[in-house]
Each structure stands twice: as C-alpha cells, then as structure tokens.
Amino acid sequence: MLKRFVVTLMALCLVMALAGIVVAQVEAPKAKTETHTGTVEVKKDAEGNVTEVSLKVSDTKTYGITLDAKGKEMATLSDKKVEVKGTVKNSTITVESYKEVVKKVQ
Question: Which pLDDT does position 20 carry in this prediction?
C-alpha cells in the first residue's frame, strides 16, 4: 500500500513538472519597443470625452494607443502627423514618447 502511494505521488510530481515546462514555453510574446509615424485619430463620446486614440500609419495599418497619461496627451494632436515610440503588443502601442512631425518649409 505504501509502495503504491509513493509511486502514485512520484508520477503526480512528474506530471506537474512536465506541465510547468510546457506552460513556460507557451508564454505570450513580449512587447517590443518600436517607432512608428502616422496621423493621430481621435474618437469622442457625446459629451466630448476621448474614448479612443489611434495612429494611422498607412491605408491598411492603424495602431490603437493605450489611453494612459501619454495616450491621452496625444489626443491633443488629432489629425496631426506624429512620430511615436513605444511598446507594441497586439497592434496597440503603449506610448513612451511622441513628437509632432513638422514639414520643413524650403
């Protein structure tokens, strides 16, 4: 009886160890810092509160902007061209820094 218990316990430990290895290998990819340039688009609700900020970088690619302090600041640049540096995860940028891209007059 004791021998059966010990064997069962060892088998359970082995299964748990293998499950931990598999879970560790399946973790989601980490966000990476990138720089993108595009036009700021802002959506507001009926009261004028910002509900969404995005960066349109091409006709086919738009990134969402996380609405933290920096993301909300970017809303003031609606329809302006900006360069954004931040971490990208699932097509959403968490902004580290941004600057308006101003055309140079020649």
Answer: 66
Q: Mapping DSSP to helix (H, G, I), strand (E, B) and coil, where does residue 86 land?
A: strand
Let me know: does 77 contact 40? Beta carbons within 8 Å. yes
- Looking at residue 91, what is its pLDDT? 93
Residue 48 φ/ψ region, left for φ over 0, alpha for ψ in the -120 to 50 degree band, beta for the rest: left
| 30: nearest Cα among 84, 99, 80, 89 | 89
More confident residue, 30 or 49: 49
All domains of the chain, ordered by start, with CATH? 32-100 (2.40.50)
Rounded distance, CA 7 to CA 5, Å? 6
Query: Coil, strand or helix: which one is 1?
Result: coil
pLDDT, one tens digit per residue, over 50-61 is 999 999 999 999
